[in-house]
Amino acid sequence: MMKSIVLLLSVFLVAGAAKVPRLVLDDSYVTRVVGGEVAANGSAPYQVSLQIPAWGHNCGGSLLNKRWVLTAAHCLVGNEPSGLVVLVGTNSLKEGGQFYKVDKLFYHSRYNSPQFHNDIGLVRLEKPVEFSNLVQSIEYSEKAVPVNATVRLTGWGRTSAGGSVPTMLQSLNVVTLSNEECKAKSGNPENVDVGHVCTLTKAGEGACNGDSGGPLVYEGKLVGVVNFGVPCGLGYPDGFARVSYYHDWVRTTMGNNS
Q1: Is the pTM of this model over 0.85?
Q2: Nearest in space to 182 (alpha carbons), one of 224, 244, 136
Q3: 238 catalytic, yes or no?
Q4: Which of 40, 75, 181, 196 would disulfide-bridge 213, Cβ 3.0–4.6 Å?
């Protein structure tokens, strides 16, 4: 049976749309990505929040160096650099950290929706971030993450389908699947291709709206970028862009636009 697969944005953006709803930040959600826990302060210093000025958090991302953020293509399509800002250096959407303006947006030329193939993008900041204990880059992996590996997902995604956006960054350990198993369990096998890695633990745990573009980390390296899922935490796999598959695109795009 086909399941409803959605982009895991906080809000869905359409080019030319005049307004999007303001997101509600709720301090009561303190123990749950879905089913997770509040991330320890400074435990994910590479994590950033891509925000719409005057509206708030929309997607996650990861600092690759002082000028570049890796995220999902669907977080960038239909946007202009002036329509996004990047918050770094805080686990809280309410306080701390520093905002940086965006200089340029890049996403894979073969990105397609609604299949979410090649769903990977890069954000170039106007000026370099200042590294500190709370702001650090993360190395991306050129090797495929193994099957049945425990990996870490972080994000400010909703804690349930249609729920509120948590104030504090959430963290959850999940387990990778083979693409064959992912296809069999997803209900939408055409969404899963060689450029994806999937995770699943159990019902009640997983990514949700607002986690899009955020990091999946294995042994200290970035291995996945949140792409899609059946919202939220319903016992179906979540899909991530497999960073090792796209590392040439990432390296070339940054090198040609530095």
Answers
A1: yes
A2: 224
A3: no
A4: 75
Which phi and psi angles does 73 have, rounded to 5°?
Answer: -60, -40
pLDDT in tens, 114-125: 889 999 999 999
C-beta separation of 236 from 200 below 8 A: yes
**CA-CA-CA-CA torsion for 176, 169, 29, 165, nearest 10 degrees?**
-90
Residue bearing tokens 């965006």: 102
Please give the single-letter amino acid code of residue 154: T
Distance CA 113, CA 130 (A): 35
Which position has the token pair 């991330």?
Answer: 39
Q: What is the DSSP letter of 73?
A: G
Residue of 10, 49, 74, 171 with catalytic role:
74
Q: Any residues with CB less than 8 A from the CB of 237 and at least 6 apart, and which?
A: 177, 182, 185, 186, 198, 199, 200, 229
